[in-house]
Amino acid sequence: QVQLVESGGGLVQAGGSLRLSCAVSGSMFSINTMGWYRQAPGKQRELVATITSGGSTNYADSVKGRFTIPRANAKNTVYLQMNSLKPEDTAVYYCNTNGRYSGSYLSYDYWGQGTQVTVSS
């Protein structure tokens, strides 16, 4: 079973920074992509940033230039470095991983428990 453990959320003033981390554990599981999504109250969950095993990244337009998604491949850990935070970044942030088990062609998605990020104005 794959598990994702997130940490790093909290309360910050507008213009500040936060760093989220997500560690993925699970045997026989090969990761294709890792990423971060967020869900604000009353809104649908949306993509924030993803990174592939090859290092290709994708960012939501709303966070380009402010957020980065470094990854420590050897540790199956992904981070979300959030700078110049805005009140509209307030949401629960979820870590996601997509990958395959050894010997399988099927891909699976797993989610973290979510961590609250609150940006005050």
Describe the fold and architecture:
- This protein has 121 residues and is an all-beta fold.
- It has no helices and twelve strands.
- The protein is 0% helix and 57% strand.
- The strands form two sheets. Strands 2, 4, 5, 6, 10, 11 and 12 form a seven-stranded mixed β-sheet that branches.
- The mean pLDDT is 94.
Q: What ranges have pLDDT less than 50 throughout 5 or more consecutive residues?
A: none
Shape: elongated
Average pLDDT over all residues: 94
Sheet of most strands: 7 strands, mixed
Supply the number of helical segments.
0
* Measured distance between first and last alpha carbons: 40 Å
Beta-strand content: over 45%
Q: What's the count of strands? A: 12
Content-based structural category: mainly beta
Element-level helix/strand string: EEEEEEEEEEEE
